[in-house]
Amino acid sequence: MTDESWAGWYRDRDGSEAVVLTTDGQQLRIRIRGVDFEGQSFDRLVPVAGTTPESGAPAPVDGTSCPVGEGFSSPDGSFSSAEGAFSLAEGALTDCVLEWDLPLPVRVDGTLRQATLGCLLSLRRVDPDLHLALHLDGAVYESARAESDFAAALTAIQRILPDGVRLQTCIACAFSAPFPLRAPAQPPAPASSASVPGPRRGLSGSLACFGEAKGAPGDRRTGLVQEVWSCREFEGSPSWATDTDTDTGHRGAFPLESV
């Protein structure tokens, strides 16, 4: 996968600053006030293991609320560095707002076009709020103001798009399927986020991709991907956004084995 970068803003009680979010479709990365964070979902962004901020020592490898740089941790789960303070919940970034725009491919009457998806995420300790707005040909198509995850928000947008307009991202791909609530195992987390318990359906990155198994016999899950990602293997799912209660994809019932 080739990385994509999205320009945006980070805000918390200590102020705001311009940031760049980078993703390869599976792992998110962002640098805020000289500190690098990464995670498989926006609500699982933790200090990167081994990263050395401009003025200090490496971040802890276990992702817990520990000193970063020359900073210190506090009992409430926050940490401070020479560059600024951050709030953490179970090791992950919280009590902040992220806002960014990203190019989103859409099909308009069969022709591939580029729209812009505006994203506003309030990372609260309980129930983060997500709002998405798709900008296409001067019109804006919005999700509800407090969606629980990207899957719900993108589905809401697809349902109000004009006939003949379809999103072309992993959420709408025939070779993806929702990560099931009943799955017996989670995929292995990176070392920096090993201590962050992830929900069965997270804020983002909760789709299983079957792209590499296209044309191969049997079912083989090839990894989890983000709902807003798009690749060359995309094939539209005719049933997406019409039946969201079924954990099935192009290749039939979702297998329950681990990655």
Provide tags for this entry:
mainly beta; 4% helix; ten-stranded antiparallel beta sheet; four-stranded antiparallel beta sheet; 19 strands
Describe what this molecule looks like in 3D:
This protein is mainly beta. Helices cover 4% and strands 38% of the residues. The strands form four sheets. Strands 1, 2, 3, 4, 5, 10, 11, 12, 13 and 14 form a ten-stranded antiparallel β-sheet that branches. A four-stranded antiparallel β-sheet has the order 6-7-8-9, with no helix packed on it. Strands 15-16-17 form a three-stranded antiparallel β-sheet, with no helix packed on it. A hairpin with a 5-residue loop joins strand 11 and strand 12. It is globular, with a radius of gyration of 19 Å. The two termini are 18 Å apart.
How many strands in all? 19
Instruction: Estimate the strand proportion.
Output: 35-45%
Helix content: under 10%
Query: Uncertain spans, ≥5 residues at pLDDT below 50?
Result: 52-76, 181-201, 244-259
Structural class: mainly beta
Termini gap: 18 Å
N-to-C SSE string, H for helix and E for strand: EEEEEEEEEEEEEHEEEEEE
Question: Biggest β-sheet: count, sense, barrel?
Answer: 10 strands, antiparallel
Shape descriptor reads globular
Q: What integer is the average pLDDT?
A: 74
Helical region count?
1
Rg measurement, Å: 19 Å
